[in-house]
Amino acid sequence: MSASPSVTNPSAGKTSAEEPSAAEPSVEGIPLMWLRDNCACARCRDPRNGQKLFQITELPTPLALGAVRRTPDGVEVDWAPDGHRSEYSTRWLTANRPGPGADAAPGDRRGETGKTLWTAADLDGRLPEAAWADYVGDPVVKARVLDSVLGLGFALLRDVPCRAGQVLDVAETFGYVRETNYGRLFDVRVEPDPNNLAFTGARITPHTDNPYRDPVPTLQLLHCLTNSASGGDSGLVDGFQAAALLRAEDSEAFAVLTRTPVPFRFADARTVLEAERPLIDVDGRGRIREVRFNNRSMATLRLPADELEAFYRAYRTFAEITLRPELQLDFRLSPGDCLVFDNVRLLHARTAFEETGARHLQGAYADIDALAGTLAVLRRQRHAAGEEFLDELAGLFEGEGAGAYLGEPVTMAQHMLQAAARAQEAGAADALVAAALLHDVGHFHGPVTGEDLMAGTDNRHSHTGADRLADWFGPEVTEPIRLHVAAKRYLCAVEPEYLGLLTEASVYTLQVQGGPMSPPEVAEYEANPYAADGVAVRRWDDQGKDPEASAPDFAHFRPLLAALLRTA
Question: Which fold has domain 6-100?
Fold first, then answer.
């Protein structure tokens, strides 16, 4: 098969580079074979399951374009020589277009580019955690927990029922239990005849489990039933962070550990397990994808003497990095805590404890692909619900938004659309454009409305709107909305000329809302991390009251809102 050309000119039979005319949609620079292989029509993919109906060898070669036409949603392509027709949406082309940086997209969240690497200080006081009842009862909380396992490498569920076998129920909320020689479930407690140091009171240094297994279980769960022993505190180390530090500080040691297969072995009376893998595994582009680190399970390396010298120097260097205090996140599991973590990324540890004390964890293994799949389904459902939410917002702009706006010469919808337009013209970040657009949502169909505000009752619409939107948008959107009324009071206190810029209606509502801030209130406002954003939204709010000004409609801003919706 000859090499596939790239799409450079959407006109009949051409494959050479030319500039498309202004009327033609540009698919310039896209490899033809890749584009054809991704055709999603019913002849190419089964519409019931999306699977391809052709083999790559069945595509014609040489492949060329017959024509490219713009459609309302993207482009339509006619192929030569077979006349096949394909359609590609603008959204799909934007998300998947080849080009610089495309390989850095975290499509595979198993690798380091799909992770958030951390040190202990990064998570000080903000462990990724959730109450069990919230996790099982709220899909948003569940998605957030699973996303933490993928992104940070772990999450902690609190108040999980302290009953034997509950850890299996936890695993089955996102996937399937991986049965091993330890069974579907294993007990981590002192045993009279232990086949593993984990079943003693000994100190266990940072390690990953089951490195002697191929494939290794990619997730581990540990559920605390009892922990009243002296000692036995837990620790986690981000193995990807440790490996990244090794790469930065000693690139040759990193290279040695990525290319040297290490034999791992476990054996007892009934089991022999062996696997040979590097301590640090990387993908084809050199990005960290897996860490296997367990000094207790390493067997004897058989290599030439110079390679052994190089390996042990690198191995010790890496081990010393994993023991750096700033990398180890220390905490104590309490009864009802269930730790879910990535076993090919995070190294877990524990301090020694008195074997006469009561310490009993139950554990299970699972696989991260099932967890990622469950998260994808939750996000797909969340996306559908998000589209419904945006439909609801659009309906508010068209319905109640046509009503009068607090004595101003514009409607509520005109006011908010103008504010968003001014923000966009100012080059504001998308989150601030969204905040300007939605800053007065709190006036819509609530127990207290804008009419009450004009009647002298503070409807606290800034807080109402922020709270309504918090299920769907992050604080970068909601907090400037929450502050935009306070920002008016703040500006009246710190900028004497600002009060003179307010409309008559806004001066009236200022008094209802508390008037200019006192010096202590000013200091408290300025300490808020979103203070400047609140002021920015306030100024765009003030600019959105011109009956002669133009502004795009809600549909213009909808893609921006959709991109900001929280999926977890």
Answer: NE0471 N-terminal domain-like (3.30.2020)
Closest Cα partner for 115 from 429, 408, 301, 346? 346
Distance of CA 473 to the CA centre of its chain: 14
In b/e form, how buried is each residue of 3-14, taking b as 16+ CB within 10 angstroms?
ebbbbbbbeeeb
Nearest-10 Cα torsion for 371, 375, 377, 382 = 160
pLDDT at 400 > cutoff 80: yes
Q: Which residues pair with 204 in a beta bridge?
A: 350
In whole angstroms, what separates CA 230 from the centre of its chain? 38
Encoding tokens for residue 380?
Answer: 């797909």
Topology of the domain comprising 398-564: Hypothetical protein af1432 (1.10.3210)
Tokens of 460: 């606290």
Q: What is the pTM of this model?
A: 0.77
Using an 8 Å Cβ cutoff, are 60 and 127 in contact? no
Tell whether the torsion through CA atoms of 122, 480, 491 and 463 is positive or negative: negative
Domain 130-225+232-374 indexed as CATH 3.40.50.2000: no
Q: Which two tokens mark 33?
A: 């074979």
- Give the integer Cα–Cα distance in Å for 106 and 115: 8
Nearest to 291 by CA among 300, 282, 280, 283: 280
In degrees and rounded to multiples of 5, residue 525 shows phi and psi of: -65, -45
Roughly what angle, to the nearest 10 degrees, separates helices 251-259 and 305-322?
110
User: Residue ranges per domain, the chain?
Assistant: 6-100, 130-225+232-374, 398-564
Determine which helix (DSSP H) or strand (DSSP E) holds 281, and give its type and residue range: strand 280-282
Residue at 357: amino acid letter: G
Any idea which of 42-46, 62-66, 154-158, 407-411 has the lowest mean pLDDT?
407-411
